[in-house]
Amino acid sequence: MKESRDGIGHDRISKSSSVSSIPLILDIDDFKGDFSFDALFGNLVNELLPSFQEEEADSADGHGNVSGNDTLPNGHKRASSDAIKFTQGLAAPLFPEVDALSSLFKDSCRELIDLRKQIDDRLFNLKKELSVQDSKHRKTLAELEKGVDGLFDSFARLDSRISSVGQTAAKIGDHLQSADAQRVTASQTIDLIKYLMEFNSSPGDLMELSPLFSDDSRVAEAASIAEKLRSFAEEDIGRQGIQDMGNANASRGLEVAVANLQDYCNELENRLLSRFDAASQRRELSTMSECAKILSQFNRGTSAMQHYVATRPMFIDVEVMNADVRLVLGDQGSQASPSNVARGLASLYKEITDTVRKEAATITAVFPSPNYVMSILVQRVLEQRVTAILDKLLVKPSLVNLPPMEEGGLLLYLRMLAVAYEKTQELARDLRTVGCGDLDIEGVTECLFTSHKEEYPEHEQASLRQLYQAKMEELRSESQQLSESSGTIGRSKGASVASSPQQISVTVVTEFVRWNEEALSRCTLFSSQPAALAANVRAVFTCLLDQVSQYITEGLERARDSLTEAAALRERFVLGTSVSRRVAAAAASAAEAAAAAGESSFRSFMVAVQRCGSSVAIVQQYFANSISRLLLPVDGAHAASCEEMATAMSSAEAAAYKGLQQCIETVMAEVERLLSAEQKPSDYKSPDDGIAPDHRPTNACTRVVAYLSRVLEAAFTALEGLNKQAFLTELGNRLHKGLLNHWQKFTFNPSGGLRLKRDITEYGEFVRSFNAPSVDEKFELLGIMANVFIVAPESLSTLFEGTPSIRKDAQRFIQLREDYKSAKLASRLSSLWASST
């Protein structure tokens, strides 16, 4: 490539070289590696075009000066120097190197064609050679596959052979191992027989034994051999005893050996235990561990384990036990409270846990089976130390002679039981964390409280009944003191003051519920199974239902008694017609007092009904929030409890219903008294003296409406929902009936009819507050019937055309017209009614 470039440069300088004299321009190496056509082309033409490159660089440098020098001051552009040169050199060749480039390109094209042919020839030869090599390679691979298959077959045969040889070697090894084991067993048996003969020499003679049994350095070996000999001898005696039932001397020699072995084992075990105790006092754990391993040869070391646990200070030190009692129960003679007991048990159980944790470290370091020792230790802690304090703390009371409330009653026992059970459960969990082996610590803990839990439901119900009785006695005492105080004040004033009955208190019912909530928490604590929990919860909730039902029923009955007393007081002052004015005045005054007593008893009963409803709502809310979720998992328990709740409240509902009926009677009695006392004949039969009629309600109507408005305010506040609607509807019907009977006593002229209509409007506006459509309709019909006193006699026939249902009452009203006889309305209306029917 360099030679070609030198030749090209020489041709350009001389400008007279021919194309045939140019050497090779291109080489095949130029196309290897990172080939770039632009680089190839540049290498070809750059040496032929130096002037063009310089002009191109000059033009690039001159572009930056065009804007500053091309414009003349007069505004005309200056002619470009290149344009002037171009105009001057039109006669010279524009591109003189074109001939050299053309020749260069033709030679390059020819050489490219030659190179392509060379490449094609080389590719053809390579393909041919590749085909030959591929054929050889395939043949070689086929031969290799055959060889590999043969090799695999050889390996398979070799593996089978190796496996067979291995199995044979394993069998031989098993036989050799079995033979060696038999040899060792036989050797040991010979030694054991020799030792057995030594123990079988004479009863009680242990002096002629081998040195093995007296060498303290070989105590472990001696213990193992002695235990094996004893087991063998005892087994042989048992077998011979079955075979030779009648031969008394068949196993006589082995019996001597057994007796001697037993004596030796006992002596050795006692010696080891003494050494173990001495090491324990010195805290020599290595010696203790050695003794424990040797003692494990005797009954798996049970005696050593039990001996170690039994010698712990917390089981044998009386001062420890007394300190436990003082820590939990406090000083003697003082009444321990559940909170103090809880703190004391927490401290005691923490101390026990710490002690067991320290013992666990020693047991793990000493005994070969620490889990078994821990199970013995923890069981001993629960059955001795914990049981001792529980026996002092939980003295089960008698259900026949209950402990007095002054000493806490049954509730104190139940609270102590709950605290002890909960804290002991926590102790069991802590001991489980420390380690208790395979001991069922939860089961052992439950056994500590089995006797208490068996009678727990009866004690809980008895406690709730005791609390209720104590509360009732407290309320009766307070009521009696209040009554005595009121009586003293009344006597000092020279008047008899009637003591108001003891009212139902929502606070007391809330206290009942609080007792039940506490009992419910204990039920949940003591009852792990859903069925048992549901049964206990139902029993506890039934106690609450009985308490609330009895309490509110008795409260309603006391309120009813005051209504009954007020009714009896009214009946006492009902007089006949022929009495003196003085007697009548005294009776009226007494009647006023009876009316005041009736109104007071009415209000008291309404307050009782209101508080009764609030109490029932509290119980229902408590059932929904706390009871139902515990009963739902058991089929039928929730429905049965709902039925019990409805049954329990039925007595209170019956008392409330009777009392509301008495309230209606009380109200109507006062309404009748006011009507009788205030209604005058002249109210509905005013004289025709030319004075304008009075359109105001009568004084009796005003008094009755004022009384009803005042007294029923308590009913509007106390009653709700359907109870309120039923009560007011019944009262409205009774008021309607009472007014009809009252108006039958009077005679009406047209102006009196207008006055009556005004009274009916006043009554109707008042009863509209009852929101009772049937009552409103009756008073509307009363307003229509009052028209019989206003219209002329000849218009009576058309008065009831649209309302035939009131015709019967209308006939009675018509008979009260002032002109009933003078206008001969009887005969006129009889023919009218007959024709209309």
UniProtKB/TrEMBL annotation:
The coiled-coil regions, if any, are none
Q: What is this protein called?
A: Exocyst complex component Sec10
Q: What are the record keywords, sorted? A: Coiled coil, Exocytosis, Transport
Entries under InterPro entries matching the protein: Sec10-like, Sec10_HB, Sec10_N
Q: Which organism is it from?
A: Citrus clementina (Clementine)
As for family, the record states:
Belongs to the SEC10 family.
Cellular component per GO, a single term: exocyst
Annotated Exocyst complex component Sec10-like alpha-helical bundle domain residues: 221-827
Residues in Exocyst complex component Sec10 N-terminal domain copies: 100-215
Q: Which GO terms describe its biological process?
A: exocytosis; Golgi to plasma membrane transport
Q: Which residues form the signal peptide?
A: none
Q: Region Disordered: list its residue ranges.
A: 55-78
